[in-house]
Amino acid sequence: MERTGRPRDPLIDDAVRDATVELLTQVGYARLTLEEVARRAGTTKPAIYRRWRTRQHLVLDALGRRLGTNTTRVPDSGCVICDLIGGITVFVTVFRRVPPGVLGALLTDCTGQPGLRTAFMRTLFEPARNAVGEMVDRAKARGDLRADLDRDLAVDLLGALVHYRALFAHASTDSESVTSAVMTLLRGMAARKLDHAH
Amino acid sequence: MERTGRPRDPLIDDAVRDATVELLTQVGYARLTLEEVARRAGTTKPAIYRRWRTRQHLVLDALGRRLGTNTTRVPDSGCVICDLIGGITVFVTVFRRVPPGVLGALLTDCTGQPGLRTAFMRTLFEPARNAVGEMVDRAKARGDLRADLDRDLAVDLLGALVHYRALFAHASTDSESVTSAVMTLLRGMAARKLDHAH
Amino acid sequence: MERTGRPRDPLIDDAVRDATVELLTQVGYARLTLEEVARRAGTTKPAIYRRWRTRQHLVLDALGRRLGTNTTRVPDSGCVICDLIGGITVFVTVFRRVPPGVLGALLTDCTGQPGLRTAFMRTLFEPARNAVGEMVDRAKARGDLRADLDRDLAVDLLGALVHYRALFAHASTDSESVTSAVMTLLRGMAARKLDHAH
Amino acid sequence: MERTGRPRDPLIDDAVRDATVELLTQVGYARLTLEEVARRAGTTKPAIYRRWRTRQHLVLDALGRRLGTNTTRVPDSGCVICDLIGGITVFVTVFRRVPPGVLGALLTDCTGQPGLRTAFMRTLFEPARNAVGEMVDRAKARGDLRADLDRDLAVDLLGALVHYRALFAHASTDSESVTSAVMTLLRGMAARKLDHAH
DNA sequence: TGCTAAGCGAGACGGTACGTCCCGTCTTAAT
DNA sequence: ATTAAGACGGGACGTACCGTCTCGCTTAGCA
Predict the structure, then answer these.
(1) pLDDT tens for residues C38-61?
(2) Chain A residues with CB inside 8 Å of B154's CB?
(3) If one looks up domain D10-51 in CATH, what number appears?
(4) Which end of chain B is less crowded, N or C, counting CB atoms within 10 A of the terminal residue's CB?
(5) Which residues in D lie closer than 8 A to residue C157 (C-beta atoms)?
């Protein structure tokens, strides 16, 4: 389909995305105003609204570009412990690349807008999970992880821990802490075989 | 310290807190305006600002009252599986009692305000963790959980899962899912004994 | 100069001016609030501030419109006494058309704002004076008034009296009082020729 | 009648009056806040309200003290021109002693409060008029002014001119201007005898 | 001399209105 | 036809100040 009329200036797209990320890191999501984004990008608000329907769409797009579209993968080390640590690292990397606190606020702002929520999940949630899921599959195939282990649950246990600690910052996500968590997840928390007959 | 000047009208305190919770459930955190809170509470903005320094302080206080100050406890069932499920339930309850999305947004808004962040942790984060932590201690004392299990890590693994699923809503936090997670945490994910010599 | 951007809604201009005059007559200048003006005009404060820099500018403009931009004139009756009474009437009319007390308060509020003061003079002060000044010129040309009479002084003597009595309301500005003043001004107060050698 | 209870601190009365006059000269009547008066006087608002019912009462009292309660008099020079100039000077002095613009604003604020208005007149309006009135009486007795000259009108013509020029500042009230006005008032404005048969 | 109560000082309150930031949209001129 | 840009109408903000209420203290007059 052909487009008519004046073509959109592609430089504005980038300038706005850059200004958005810059502002996010400087003042955070809550104090991000399109007025200031437009100012820093050297353009105006209508030009932004023409490209992104809402502030949420803009931030999501800007962050998505920053995270990169190149498929994330967990390197296959052959060692399940190393693989799991690698999996956690994938999650940690997401938080390293996104200004602190933005994820939670953005997610909240997506409440009630299904399309936006889907986009959020596809951009900031699923890529890392898919990479870790594949890693789990490989480890199961190798016989390193239980055959009856639920793939999604495994991914959740790893991802949740990172998310939780990154969000509340009550505990570290560094290598040592992460290794400790991995060992516990592998060995289990139980002291002996247990039944649950209730 | 002396108390002087006209005393604050305690009815306003309650009316504002109630109006805040009501608005949070109706329009969410992002669209909560102090103007509307004041209107519904039958008072004015200055009266609110006199009591709570910021919107965040107000919301935190209102939610804290709603969660109750009565100490949360995990009932001691004697069965470690039941106890762990009970522990998870404590976390789930927090989310059930707080309007959806508020926790994340509020936490984000606390960024950069140490005092506020501390208050947030004390009100909405630590009570549930302490209750679960005590449960873990009991199970360890009974010999149901590994003696070398790190208490905070155990609490994290339970709490993180709930938080993660409640936030992203990609998986359930119902009884069945929770039991499955508990069993995996107890038994561990590994198919056999593993070494990590890297 | 180019005109760009969304044009101002002229209906708002009129609605605000009308609401201003209405409020002035009902509650006076001191209790005039832009909040109430906006409410009655069915608009908001920013829309008002966009049009008038301050409350003073608004009131001045609203009154100016009400007084009319049509040039005031003193009818040429051929009789100097009638002309002078007509001149005084012009001054009286200004006070009749402006809510009581507004002139003084507005003038006071213009203190220290040269631009505003100038606008005040141009709108509420000079038109009547010019009209009376022309009348004085005509009477002098006819030989009814002294050839050496200072035009501005003559205007002052008439205008001051009206202003003084309107403001303090200690004496009337009705036809009889005014005639009496005119006769005194024409004849002079002295009982006989006087010298001043001090 | 005897008073019981703790006596009022007389130092506060003076401190508040002084602070009021100070503020009036610095920021004018419109920006005079009791909050700031109290601050500068080293006291509090209730202490002020206990002494003066309203801001107007306070300002009026403070100005009244400043003008002095000593009866104003126009010196009897024997020369009617000098006397009239002296009369005008009495009016001018009032404005010299009162911060500019305060008179008009205060008068406006007295609208609708009969008691306050009366106090205003007694304090700031009548003393000067009485002094000039006496001067007119003397000049009439001497045969310097017309026997049929209305005393109040004569006072008005002098007072109005000063008030008018002081308020609008469009003309001077210095000695030369004043002499010119006095000569015109004495001689009259008419070029010849005039009849008014309309 | 000690007691009582009226009135005082001071501080904080409940509330009105302020002037401003920012939102999301509309209009014009240019491409 | 569609863009870039400027200004608009309007919602909500956080604050200055108003006039008042409450408290604890001071002081005069009575016991």
Answers:
(1) 999 999 999 999 999 999 999 999
(2) 184, 189
(3) 1.10.10.60
(4) N
(5) 157, 161, 181, 184-185, 189
